[in-house]
């Protein structure tokens, strides 16, 4: 039965018929729970991560098994209604620690929401995980940390991935390049900001629009292409009107000789609403290229 399920899922994910030759194997973590480990069970830990003078909220989804595990930090978008927690669970089943967090001023994290703060908050999470005491408590291997983000979180992932040479890789899911939104009229940016203001503290649509209009050069994630040239990058796009943002980053990396980009386009919406398994499959396959799964 398990083999039949795997073949059915493989056909669905690959958009090919079930009789097509040798579809790529679907990771077991997509449809199989790992064996229980009573001595070292899977668990979840609530984290409070220092960043910008406050402690932001985070959660660690930790897999079963003795010793340390590779870790991926998952960055949500603007404002972050889609948290990708199903992705975090799938990644944990694949043997990775999955860390989710809320930026300053979002979803109950203290502080003021500012676009410039978001990469700083992701960097603070990574620094927290690399702290020897925290790494030991959470089973984190500090040398095996990657980052991925959805929508604005993809911008965060690309930005932090370019800044941090120690990261294993950077993943983008339907990313929005916040550095090029300044080209839109202020009135349109205010309208867009008003539609993405849920739970955001100490800000306003006007303030968010003005920050984007005044954005420094580094807000454009294409400016980090040279630093991403030799880093594995996962570039996932969808039919949301933003695919060109990621495509431009991929082109910039390729233009300077980068060859470590894995790109895939799905015919789905911005949240991957009807392609959640597809999303999990591509992320886990990419993670397995960074760190081969345990035997």
Characterization of this structure:
This protein is an alpha/beta fold. It has two domains: 33 residues, no CATH class; 251 residues, Alpha/Beta hydrolase fold, catalytic domain (Rossmann fold, 3-Layer(aba) Sandwich). Helix content is 36%, strand content 19%. The protein has ten helices and eight strands. Strands 1-2-4-3-5-6-7-8 form an eight-stranded mixed beta sheet, with helices on both faces. Helix 2 packs across helix 10, helix 3 packs across helix 5 and helix 6 crosses helix 7. The N terminus is likely disordered.
How do the strands and helices of this protein lay out in sequence?
Layout: H1 2-14, E1 43-51, E2 54-62, E3 69-75, H2 85-93, E4 97-101, H3 117-130, H4 132-138, E5 140-150, H5 152-163, E6 170-173, H6 186-194, H7 205-213, H8 225-228, E7 233-238, H9 243-255, E8 261-266, H10 276-290
Parallel strand pairs: 3-4, 3-5, 5-6, 6-7, 7-8
Antiparallel strand pairs: 1-2, 2-4
